[in-house]
Amino acid sequence: MKAIKHVVLTLGVVAFVSGCSSFQHRNQMASFNSAYSSGDYGSALESVIFDVGEGDEVDSESHLLELLHQGEMYRLTGRYEEAAKAYDLAEEGMKYLDQSGLLENAAEGFMAVMVNDAERDYEALMSEAVLVNTYKGLAFLAAGNTEYARIEFNRANDRTRRAVDYFQEEIAEQQAELKKEAQDEESNASMVSNSLKNEEFQAAIADHYGAASSWSVFSEFIVPSSTYLHGMYFLANASGGADYERAATSLKRVAKMSPDSAVLQADARLATDLASGKQGRSGLPPQVWVVYENGLGPVLEETRFDVPLLLFREDQQSLGYFGIALPRYAERAAVPGHIGMMGDTGEIVHTERISDMGTVIRTEMKERFAGILTRAVTSAVIKAVIQNEAAGRFGPLGQLGAAALTAATTQADLRGWQAMPNHWQAARIDRPESGKLTLLDNLGDTLGNIDIPQQPYTLVYIKRPSILAPATVITMDLQGGAAATFARLPEQTAEPAQVSSIQ
Known about the structure:
Strand content: 15-25%
Largest sheet: 6 strands, mixed
Structural class: alpha+beta
Shape: elongated
């Protein structure tokens, strides 16, 4: 009896702490999103700064989400060294890159099933990790550091390559652990395993959540924008045939994912021609690529519903309905239309959509969903057992108290990186002889004018989270020979206040 009292008491304390933590996180993200979507990156950065004691090291695992948001806010305010530092710390906090101890894993696993997934340290998505290296590569390139940029673009590409193996290993480990723990037919693991296989359970999931097999996903894991930038970088910085082949491989892979994209097909042909010698580098006029990060990326919302679970009661298996909470991605708004570019001739070239973040995330979520579902069902089974025990020992009041705690702790983990875009667009043009390029907004009005230096390969990188925010425009030498120029268009009368990290 003491044991069940301790469990219920522990659940009550943890439910209170969990509720406070979730409330704090929601408030923090609300403050961040309000500032970020309006282009007030100084206030957005202020909302994700955290205190670190003098002489203390940053706990990069517990502050991973703040570090991800800090890194992008530094990059969008032209503070590339600080952006790289924040992203370096974020990489340290990505659990699948570290060898976490078994005790820590066991403790986090216990908290996840006893409370909910939000009690675990945030585990970054593989797509987020790929973007971290891509954004770091862009930060180094903007600072004129081509050597470090090359390293980061290669890391992003390597993570993409290893993603399939990582997902397969993660699923295999989950299945092996569940199978091992389910040897005892009356164990919690056995009840979880039997519930997951139950046809009524599968029907309930499909009815309320949708079948993962029907999701709109890529045929393989890829973050097309990262692979595109990897190919573009090596096309501009090729020192031999091997580099041209790297560029061609990446650009052809992205083009294959979007066969209707004219700009992707043209870039793949250019890389292939350079790799084969059909196109000479000296005969190619100076090129300008425009890559446009548009809108606000998907965010997680909670879906709660009852599912049938197979439980042992009085040495017999019986069916009961219990609540679970699952995360579901919801799209957010994009800036309408495209970016237009006008050079000396007056001809207007528009960017075209090359990839959306929603498909990338759904592709990864499809691989991770089995693990998320298993943890949710495990948590529901354990809480159902506690409810039954409380009812048997303490009567209706015990059951009511345990049910209240279950309801309070049944929550989906809705954490995620809020600074990713809705989608990417791209275009490529010959450099205007005058070096002057006019950018047009979605209505065809002048967004601003930028200078394109006399150099073989230029990348104009634009990010605009909403129509209310100005566009951040970073004009980079793709060969890293000079530092980038930075602008916010349309131009503002005053720059947002600078915020320093407390790290």
